[in-house]
Amino acid sequence: MSGTRGHWENVYATRAETAVSWYQPHSERSLEWIAAAASNPAAAIVDVGGGASKLVDDLIAKGYTDLTVLDVAEEALAKSRDRLDSDAGKVAWVVADITEWRPPRTYDVWHDRAVFHFLTGPAQQVAYLAALRAGTAAGSTVIMATFALDGPEKCSDLPVQRYSPATLAARLGPAFVLKRQADETHETPWGSQQRFSYAMFRRLS
Ligand SMILES: C[S@@+](CC[C@H](N)C(=O)[O-])C[C@H]1O[C@@H](n2cnc3c(N)ncnc32)[C@H](O)[C@@H]1O
Q1: Residue 11 Cβ < 6 Å to ligand 1
Q2: What is the pLDDT of residue 24?
Q3: Helix (H) / strand (E) containing 25
Q4: 73 Cβ inside 6 Å of ligand 1
Q5: Dihedral, CA atoms, 132, 134, 135, 139, nearest 10 degrees?
Q6: Nearest-angstrom CA–CA distance, 202 and 162
Q7: Domains of the chain in sequence order
Q8: pLDDT for position 188
Q9: Would the CB of 186 count as within 6 Å of ligand 1?
Q10: Most CB atoms closer than 10 Å: which of 52, 63, 66, 173?
Q11: 78 C-alpha to center of ligand 1: Å?
Q12: pLDDT for 44-80, tens place per residue?
């Protein structure tokens, strides 16, 4: 098992899904932006590094029918599957490291909250961006949330690369045009605050 996978399997095996710093009862901004980008319930949506997030529950409730959740930790996806019970069959579950994943198809919406920021080395970032290009097409929407420039330097005891929407846009390159941006202060389950940058891009070509 890779170091990355081992770290995350251990996190999800030892912590309740509501007891991690990134827990959200509902991913309000992500839901709003996905709805704005994908009015068709048949739109293909992938949540990259979705973990045990309840975003997928809310997307199912909104009627989306082509949902994929990818995570490096099987344990995280198992939590979501257990929670969703009979609705779990409505989702494609993928256990993979995003830096090694070869998407078998493209998605209309690529969503990533607090995953890309763990990739602090150029080689990892290049590998992620290769997956992003393979998993999207011209017209696809990319929604990414990372720790902001004034956000924490670590998440889950791992160092992160912090971004503003503008520096994220620069990292994605000119094929991805910044359409929306927002700063968000996330409150952890124990009441501390974390500054996030949200950015929504449209792939041009
Ligand atoms: C901070 S959590 C965020 C989870 C979820 N996106 C959310 O907002 O609740 C980071 C997630 O990314 C996953 N992850 C970390 N590195 C990854 C990688 N290289 N490939 C795929 N998933 C990864 C972790 O297992 C974890 O579920």
Answers
A1: no
A2: 98
A3: none
A4: yes
A5: 90
A6: 21
A7: 3-203 (3.40.50.150)
A8: 97
A9: no
A10: 52
A11: 14
A12: 999 999 999 999 999 999 999 999 999 999 999 999 9
CB of 97 sitting under 6 A from ligand 1: yes
| Among 84, 133, 99, 93, residue whose Cα is nearest residue 3 | 99
Contact 21/156 with Cβ under 8 angstroms? yes
List, as one string, the DSSP characters of 111-141.
EEESSGGG--SHHHHHHHHHHHHHT--TT-E
Burial tier of 17 (Cβ tally within 10 Å: 0-12, 13-18, 19+): middle
Span 120-148, mean pLDDT? 98
Mean pLDDT across the stretch 99-114?
98
Which protein residue has the closest C-alpha to ligand 1 atom 10?
A: 115
Helical pair 165-172 and 122-134, crossing angle rounded to 10 deg: 70
User: What pLDDT sits at residue 172?
Assistant: 98
Half-sphere exposure of 182 (CA within 13 A, CB side): 14
- CA-to-CA distance for 197 and 185, rounded, in angstroms? 9
Residue among 97, 118, 193, 113 at smallest CA distance from 160: 118
Whose C-alpha lies nearest to ligand 1, atom 19? 97
Q: Which of 55, 48, 66 is nearest to 146 (CA)?
A: 48
| Ligand 1 atom 12 nearest Cα | 49
Q: Are strands 44-48 and 193-203 parallel, antiparallel or unpaired?
A: unpaired
